[in-house]
Amino acid sequence: MTRFANFLARASLWLGVILPIITLVFEGLTHACSSTFFDPLPTWWHYLAILPVPITCFLTLRLWKNPSEQAIERLSWVNRIAWPVILLYNVTFAWVSMVACLLLPFSLAMIFSKEALFIVLILASLGPLAGFVGLAVATGSLSRIRASLPDPVAARCIRKGRYGWMAGIAMLLIAEGPLLWTEFWIEGAAARGHPAQTTALQILRKTGREDMLLRQSYEAGSSGLQGPSLALLFGREGVPFSFREVLPGGPIGFNQAREIYFKVTGMPFNEARPPRTSQFRLLGMNEGIQRDGSLDGVDWDAERGGDSVGARVRGLSLATSSMQWHLDSVAAQAYGEWTLEFGNVHSSAQEARCQILLPPGGFVSRVNLWIDGQVQEAAFGARAQVKAAYRQVVVVEQRDPVMVNMSGPDRVAVQCFPVPAGGKMKIRLGITAPLVGEPDHTGQLALPAFLERNFAILPGFKHAVSCQRDRGAVETREANDTTLLGERVLPSGDPAPLVWAKDPFAANAPGGTQPAYLARVRESIQQAPAARVVVVLDGSFRLRGHAEAIRNAIEAIPSNLKLEVVMATDGEPLIFGRDALAQRIVPKAFVGGRDNSPALLKGLKQALPSGGEQVPATLIWMHGPQPWAFDRRDVLPPSRETPTRAVAVQNSESYPTELVEYLAKLSAPPTLHTVEMVPGPNRLLEQLYQSTELRSGMRWNGTPVGLKAHLASIVGGGERWRYRYTRSDMAPQEGVQVWDQLVRQQVYEEVMDAFKGVNVVPDAQAKRAAHYQLVTPYSGAVVLETKQQYAAAGLKQADPDSSPKIPSVVPEPSRALLLVVGLGWALLRRRRRGAK
Predict the structure, then answer these.
(1) At what angle do helices 69-92 and 52-65 cross, to 10 degrees?
(2) What CA dihedral angle connects 773, 778, 782 and 787, to 10 degrees?
(3) 294, pLDDT greater than 60
(4) Which of 525, 467, 470 is CA-nearest to residue 499?
């Protein structure tokens, strides 16, 4: 071997040591390849499988200095272990390696520039090629040395080399096997309607990799794949040849991945921490991104300006949150203002989106946005008009709007854009809510909470809550995002039987001036008990922890009532009676995420009058999240969705399900009582509230006793309270005057009573709701930046004087304070008499 050839061999071996290590460290720290092409190192097994490459090159260098038979035998084994993995990675990265070779001279010129990190990227891209060349040099050197050995020693080296091949293939199978196994069954789970789908879901729950599904929920196409084998089979980017055109299937798209993730785990994909994405930029590292991954997400927001909340957005978080509430026990009402401030450490502006669960019977009556430090009021208008104005500003003009629309019973969708790069955006929601009674309370306020969001809430974050009662008592507390759903606030007294208020909107009401005074009287009515009960039960994993409470609550339904339970499963719903409750409603029966629409359809048919019945059965739906409309009509055939960054369609207004279509055929469908066992996004509920009468009632307090009482209040008869409203031109002579929230409550109830679905929008009701500044199924609210934008959209900004506000209350003096004042006055009189 000449000196030059010897130099090249040593250089190749040293590069085979250094560059693969640089590649491992660089990808492990930045995830650059995983966010651009595919994830090449998804598990620690992949790191271990690659380590024999630099180890072989290093041992070869040592062997040249100190050759021995033991070292040669050891190197023969390690050398063969490294070949399977280096061949796979070089075939997969051949295109990337060629580009890196072409860019290498240009990157060397950037060593002393601000873009010096670019050369690290190029060197990391050359890691597989350098490892292959170094391994080839090591193998050739080993063959020459082995040829000079005695035959017995050479035979042992060859035998150990065979063992090395087997060990290398085994290590590669350990690393890639679970990924290929999971992808195979993902293909089966994506075949909607195929008999193998149920089997595929069961196998994925037991042996599949959830992180693969989560990544594919965020990354469409090959960038959602994990491991070089899947990239070679199904990828398009970064590989010289893809079997995608030869093999059926391929990486699934956003929609199917998110649906399958829920069916496998029972959790909406955007509740889980997003997969780690690249922290690398050609101009440097992202600043401000949390090292623990709490601010990870997608860089490019595919759902911006759409109807769905979608994936978590990288760098976007909730900066501050505070609530101020006032409880009026006389009017049995509450009004609160929730101020939210969003922060964005990303390099580009982002849209914050969320769905909020309101207090039972609550609605949004005020929306504010801070623009240049000034509070701006919203304009209220028809739902379609508000959406058109928001999308024009967000998509076309890229300016400062916020929009609030009702998305379901006691639910609103909030969207605001832009949260500026490196900046913040502040909004405020005014929420009016009745104090809903429970069996053990005259009324209470359940605080609003997030159901779904595309922004992060960092660990340790607290919501500041302040509650002011009408007698002056102020209570402050803190709650995290989980406990906020369980927070309850009790009023300081009982409601008055007769209250009245002056209507500030009466003079200019649509359709002409109406009486300016509104009175509300509380009446007692008798509720007829149920004759028959049908319970539709969600069989998803999130209800597993409540299995015993659910069973006990259903068993507590009076035994004289005929009872049927329809339980959602992966296949046909289970139908059973009271005698099978103990065997069917057990923790192990709740797995994954179940589509509840077939069970609801079956329960609906079971609840219809039969056998001479005059009225339908009482229909109760006990459920958890349903983040996907499983049988919507927007999906492509079962083979495959297009793996592009298409917007994930979740608009339930445009894609009716079989259940909704069946309801539309019924002249008088049964009333559906919903009991939300685990709060979360629910597309099925959103569809149902648009097509049938829903009664969500009180929010479950999380206790077994509360659940029994809740079901008893639905199926039992007895005395109930209801409110009756009347209007007059003169102020009532009797009763107690209360705030004008009473008027807003009456108009909201009037609009909801007339609600027949979003496809039937009475112009009078939409104008009436907008006039009273309410967010309803017919009307929404939007804050724009300029008067020209309002004029172009045909909207009028609300007058701040007509917007509701937190009243200031003079605290009622306590008994101790009155006693001190009385003693002081008595002492003062005694001193004056002594002076006389």
Answers:
(1) 140
(2) -80
(3) no
(4) 470
Residues in CB range of 4: below 8 A, 6 or more apart: none
Lowest average pLDDT, out of 180-184, 605-609, 633-637, 719-723, goes to 633-637
**Parallel, antiparallel, or unpaired: how do β-strands 779-783 and 379-382 relate?**
antiparallel
In whole angstroms, what is the distance from residue 383 CA to residue 175 CA?
A: 52
- The whole-number pLDDT of residue 71 equals 87
Q: pLDDT tens across 603-642, in order? A: 999 999 887 788 889 999 999 999 987 654 433 333 333 3
Residue with tokens 């998305």: 407
Mean pLDDT of the chain: 83
d(CA 402, CA 351): 10
Q: Which amino acid is residue 824, in one-letter code?
A: G
Would you call 49 helix, strand, or coil by DSSP? Answer: helix
pLDDT: which is higher, 819 or 717: 717
Using a CB cutoff of 8 Å and minimum separation of 24, what contacts does 651-656 make?
A: 651/306, 651/307, 651/308, 652/683, 652/686, 652/687, 652/690, 653/307, 653/690, 653/758, 653/759, 655/629, 656/687, 656/691
- Partners of residue 736 on adjacent β-strands: 499
Query: Strand order of the sheet with strand 363-371?
Result: 374-377, 363-371, 424-434, 333-344, 316-328, 463-469, 474-479
d(CA 313, CA 302): 10
d(CA 177, CA 233): 14
Task: At 825, give phi and psi (nearest 5°).
Answer: -65, -40
Residue 817 is predicted with a pLDDT of 43
Res 452 pLDDT > 80 = yes
Q: Which two tokens stand for residue 42?
A: 């998804």
pLDDT of residue 664: 78
CB atoms within 10 A of CB 367: 28
| Residue ranges of E strands in 383-505 | 402-408, 411-419, 424-434, 436-438, 441-446, 449-453, 463-469, 474-479, 488-489, 498-502
Angle made by CA atoms 176, 182, 183, in degrees to the nearest 5: 90
> pLDDT tens digits for 417-429?
889 999 999 999 9
Q: How far apart are CA 99 and CA 122, in angstroms?
A: 9
Gap between the Cα atoms of 369 and 352, Å rounded: 13
Whether the CB-CB separation of 731 and 502 falls below 8 Å is answered with yes
Residue 36 pLDDT greater than 90, yes or no: no
**Cis status, amide bond into 420, omega within 30 of 0:** no
Contact 184, 235 (CB under 8 A): no
The full DSSP string for 355-392 is EEEPSTT-EEEEEEEEETTEEEE-EEEEHHHHHHHHHI
Contacts made by residues 458-464, CB under 8 angstroms, sequence distance 24+: 458/290, 458/294, 458/295, 458/317, 458/318, 459/292, 459/294, 461/318, 461/321, 463/321, 463/322, 463/323, 464/321, 464/322, 464/323
**SS3 readout for 740-758:** CHHHHHHHHHHHHHCCCCC
Which residues lie across from 357 on neighbouring strands?
A: 411, 449
Q: Residue 510 has which token pair?
A: 């649509």
pTM for the full model? 0.83
Mapping DSSP onto H, E and C, the string for 241-283 reads CCHHHCCCCCCCCHHHHHHHHHHHHCCCHHHCCCCCCCCEECC
CB 390 within 8 A of CB 415: yes
pLDDT at 124 > cutoff 90: no
Radius of gyration of the CA atoms of the chain, in A: 33
Q: Residue 244 CA to chain centroid, in angstroms?
A: 31
SS3 content of the chain, % helix, strand, coil (to 5): 40, 20, 35
Three-class SS of residue 213? Answer: helix
Percent of the chain past pLDDT 90, that is, above it, reads: 43
Phi, psi (rounded to 5 degrees) for 131: -65, -40
